[in-house]
Amino acid sequence: MINLLWFSNSPLRFLFWPLLWPLSLIFGSISRGRRQSFVAGKRESYRAPVPIVIVGNITAGGNGKTPVVVWLVELLQKQGLKVGVVSRGYGAKAPNYPLLVGNNTPTEALW
């Protein structure tokens, strides 16, 4: 849907704009309010005990996130760091969540 609205010249693009504009105003207002509550000290941020790197963007697939993660893991491991990868598992059908993946985890559980 986002790709259709953003990148194409489809007539649907012009149909959805007026519908999505009010939602963007609401989202912006909520986001500003949340940020202000953090700045004012009314809300507290979570600080993880380990460094965290997030690889992602608004587009679901085809942007090369997986190769970047593989490269980053290999780079960090060469530096002697222990690395863990957490994936939301888009489309996965794991028997339970979170799924701890090991050497004996069947590939089917990951897709």
Automatic annotation (TrEMBL):
GO terms for biological process, alphabetical: lipid A biosynthetic process; lipopolysaccharide core region biosynthetic process
- Stored InterPro entries: LpxK (IPR003758), P-loop_NTPase (IPR027417)
Q: What is its EC number?
A: 2.7.1.130
Q: ATP-binding: is it a keyword of this entry?
A: yes
**Which Pfam families does the protein's record reference?**
LpxK
Per UniProt, the enzyme's principal EC class comes to transferase
Pathway, per Swiss-Prot/TrEMBL?
Glycolipid biosynthesis; lipid IV(A) biosynthesis; lipid IV(A) from (3R)-3-hydroxytetradecanoyl-[acyl-carrier-protein] and UDP-N-acetyl-alpha-D-glucosamine: step 6/6
* TM stretches of this protein: 12-30
Q: Name one GO molecular function term.
A: ATP binding
Listed A to Z, the keywords are: ATP-binding, Kinase, Lipid A biosynthesis, Lipid biosynthesis, Lipid metabolism, Membrane, Nucleotide-binding, Transferase, Transmembrane, Transmembrane helix
Cellular-component GO terms for this entry: plasma membrane
Q: Which domain of life is it from?
A: Bacteria
Its function, per the record, reads: Transfers the gamma-phosphate of ATP to the 4'-position of a tetraacyldisaccharide 1-phosphate intermediate (termed DS-1-P) to form tetraacyldisaccharide 1,4'-bis-phosphate (lipid IVA).
Designated name of the protein: Tetraacyldisaccharide 4'-kinase
Species annotation: Vibrio ishigakensis
Its ancestry begins with: Bacteria, Pseudomonadati, Pseudomonadota, Gammaproteobacteria, Vibrionales
